[in-house]
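Ticket #4471: structure output looks truncated?

Reporter: J.K.
Steps to reproduce: submitted the chain below (220 residues) through the standard prediction queue, then opened the result file.
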Amino acid sequence: MEPQPSPPSPRSLGSLGSLARELSALPPSLGPVRLIAVDGHAGSGKSTFARLLAEALGGAPVLHLDDIATHEELFSWPRRLRAQVLEPLAAGRAAHWTPYDWVQRRFGPERVLEPVPLLLIEGVGAGRRALRPHLARLLWMETPRAQSWGRGRNRDGRELSDFWDGWERAELAHFADDPSRPFADTLVRQSGTGYEWTSGTDATAGRASPLTQGDGFPRA
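Returned output as attached by the reporter:
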């Protein structure tokens, strides 16, 4: 029997500089843009991680899928994202998009997004099949679903309990039909000292081969 390779060791950091350098070295995936997705369950820490990673990248812009989704279209937003953002950037043009206002329940003023060298897109479903062909890297926040949802409910308070009930059903249905984690290039886990991740050749996934249990992280 051939010796089996040992599971990859997660890299721990206080700074995200090394991951930022790794992402910056990737080839463009959407016209001149390197599109990096940060996906995970609602409440898993995607927005915080994306903000910190954007800072490590020298101020890279972050497109939040909460600005693309609506109350009526929690997950049926790919066509709008493609028309307003993906197609213009792929052609090297500025994207003109209208963020959704969750309080007013309507789209707000138009915003402009130039075709920058690296763009982060974060939110539940950022690694869905409609987006994966355009991604340079897919990162998945490795926080268990129950823990993530608990964080989200505590953050938003009891007044949004009904919304969360509907969201959980919608998220379950989405990932049952269109999972992201099996196609992640990088798994990210928050630790007491910052973040740990497996990536590149360590996270033997790629978008063609689903991840196995040997991803280097203890199971929650």
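Triage note (M.O.): checked the attachment and the full token line is present. The chain has five helices and eleven strands.
Status: closed, working as intended.
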